[in-house]
Amino acid sequence: MRIGILGTGAMAAALGGAWVRAGHQVLVGGRDSGAAASTAARIGAAWHGGLAEAARYGEAVLVAVPAQVAPELAAELAPALADRTVLDCTVPMAPGAAGPVLTTVGGTDSVAAWLAAARIAAAAPAARVAKVFGVCHESIWTLPRPAFEGAPLAVPFCTDHSPAAALVSELVISMGCDPMACGGLDRAGLLEATAVFAIGVWWSGGEARHAFPAPAIAPGAIDDEP
User: Fold this and answer.
1) Tens of pLDDT, residues 139-173
2) Which residue has the higher pLDDT, 158 or 109?
3) Are 84 and 59 within 8 A, CB to CB?
4) For position 198, which CATH number holds?
5) Where in this chain does the record put each Pyrroline-5-carboxylate reductase catalytic N-terminal domain (predicted)?
6) Of 3, 42, 124, 225, which is least surrounded by CB within 10 A?
7) 147 or 126: which carries more pLDDT confidence?
8) What residues contact 120, with CB distance under 8 A and at least 6 apart?
9) Planar angle of CA 60, 180, 24, nearest 5 degrees
């Protein structure tokens, strides 16, 4: 698979490196050509270039820039992103007094302003946006085949488009992980909020996975006991 990456930071390097190891062709794009070249060399990507070049490169395009600027970038690159699956891994987060908090993307305090994925989709309406890869810390993607307690890492994603869901699933499986479909893009805010929650727990020294044990009964079963 050919994948363009918009950004040169930690998530761009971690995910790009995972895709290179999985055998995909990756082009790292950034406004700073030197930073793009450095990131590409660090992860073993064969190509680097500008943001527009990365947006046009392949079937999938990763948005790995701060959530607050992602919609503006998507609007700038909208013609190049048309008919491509756009992978949004951004998390709209800021430090708070008691830990990280969701922050606004749209400049208001409404809940809708938190939803980076929805704003990217509105900015590039001909793209197929998928919210994915934002729940885990970037260090997880540096592991060869992430697995925990004997099970492959589950990667939740949200999208409104069947072709995007199929591409994301193929990409996740190629990384040795299990795709976890979580509904349409209207549910992407739940993944963004989950990421902020988990990061806050980690920062406090806890384990977020301990808050989500498997149900004691089979899915769909009803306990009729009083």
Assistant:
1) 999 998 888 888 899 999 999 999 999 999 999 99
2) 158
3) yes
4) 3.40.50.720
5) 2-92
6) 225
7) 126
8) 63, 70, 71, 74, 86, 88, 127, 129
9) 30
Greatest alpha-carbon span in the chain? 67
Q: Show the domain range for 18.
A: 2-211
Residue 212: which residues within 8 A CB-CB, separation 6 or more?
none
Helix (H) / strand (E) element for 174: namely helix 162-174
Count of domains observed in the chain: 1
DSSP state of 215: P
Contacts (Cβ under 8 Å, ≥6 apart) of 65: 6, 7, 9, 73, 90
How far apart CA 119 and CA 19 sit, in angstroms, is: 26
CA end-to-end span of the chain, whole Å? 54
What is the per-residue pLDDT across 42-80, written as a single tens digit (0 to 9) for each? Answer: 999 988 999 999 999 999 999 999 988 999 999 999 999
Amino acid type, 215: P
Read off the pLDDT band of 225 (50, 70, 90).
very low
Q: Over 80: is that where the pLDDT of 98 sits? A: no
